[in-house]
Write a structure and sequence with these properties.
Helix content is 17%, strand content 35%. It is elongated, with a radius of gyration of 22 Å. Strands 1, 2, 3, 4, 7, 10, 11, 12 and 13 form a 9-stranded mixed β-sheet that branches. The protein is of the alpha+beta class. β16 and β17 form a beta hairpin. The protein folds into 3 domains: 84 residues, Pseudouridine synthase (2-Layer Sandwich), CATH 3.30.2350.10; 131 residues, Pseudouridine synthase; 61 residues, PUA domain (Archaeosine Trna-guanine Transglycosylase, Chain: A, domain 4), CATH 2.30.130.
């Protein structure tokens, strides 16, 4: 029997770390090779995609996925960690909705964002949060992120509920910090739910304790077509061994050779994933090989 491999969409509850949320999967599958795609903080809930078995080699395909959140900002207060788990470090008057709406205009499109001090960003070989916990201020550099949408859903002072669609690398906690400052106040994220990662949505997710492999483990042939920028290639059955042995890939091995450059998932005659290759200028390189052909 081939070991399990595929994608699981978890609905992580508040109060669990992302690592803890994987425990039920590892136990149900009797497998340690399980990894989540994009950490959710302990106070946050929502969609936590996880790869299982040999599919963990495909994590790079999810790196550029946009994300969608529903967030509640607590206005007029800020904490050291910019979430409800940190101590309160500042207070200020709660701004008006008009002031908030004006400030939000500066957070649409491409923006420069400095990650929170309590984040996993590397600074001089250490995580920023490690420096912050040690009482040292990490020197963090701003980086470009894209906010596709940020809209007010509810304003009941001191709470502000927002819908946020954003690019990879965006910190919602940093949005709260910067929005509070620009509105002449301060803020932190009191609640956060992730609703979407790429094309995958929270409505498809399962609570960790309700996971059943037969229902909730999506094989690569099922989830790969939903990834942006990945096309499918069907391999000549007689070439399976060449691919699994990593021999230089040739489009002559394909039943329908590709005509454009890009990423391609190479499937066998039964829809099993054998490899992911990148075509560039008519030449191919392997990005991942899946020995089990799953």
């Amino acid at each position: 029997m081939k070991p399990p491999s595929g994608l699981v969409l978890l609905d992580k509850p508040e109060g669990l770390t992302s690592f803890q949320a994987l425990g039920a999967l590892k136990k149900a599958l009797d497998l340690r090779q399980v990894g989540h795609l994009g950490t959710l903080d302990r106070f946050a809930s929502g969609l936590l995609p996880a790869l299982v078995g040999s599919s963990t080699r495909l994590a790079f395909l999810f790196e550029d996925a946009d994300k969608a959140y529903r967030a509640v900002f607590q206005l007029g207060r800020s904490t050291a960690t910019l979430d409800p788990e940190g101590e309160i470090v500042s207070e200020a008057p709660v701004p008006s909705l008009e002031r908030i709406q004006q400030a939000l205009e500066c957070f649409r499109g491409r923006i420069q964002q400095t990650p929170p001090e309590y984040s996993a960003v590397h600074v001089g070989g250490q995580r920023a949060y490690q420096l912050a916990r040690a009482g040292r201020k990490p020197e963090l550099q701003p980086r470009e992120v894209t906010i596709h949408r940020i809209e007010v859903l509810r304003f009941e002072p001191p709470e502000l509920e927002l819908a946020i669609d954003c690019s990879k690398g965006t910190y919602v906690r940093a949005l709260a910090r910067d929005l509070g400052r620009l509105a002449g106040s301060c803020a932190y994220v009191s609640r956060l739910a992730r609703l979407r990662v790429g094309d995958f949505r929270l409505e498809e997710a399962v609570a960790p304790q309700d996971f059943q492999a037969a229902t909730h483990l999506f094989p690569p042939a099922r989830f790969l077509p939903r990834l942006a920028g990945v096309a499918m290639l069907s391999l000549d059955p007689g070439r399976r061994a060449e691919v699994l042995n990593g021999r230089p890939f040739s489009e002559d091995w394909c039943l329908s050779p590709p005509r454009q450059d890009g990423l391609y998932a190479v499937l066998d005659g039964e829809g099993g994933l054998l490899a992911v290759v990148r075509r560039s200028g008519g030449r191919y390189e392997y990005r991942a090989v899946i020995p089990e052909g799953r």
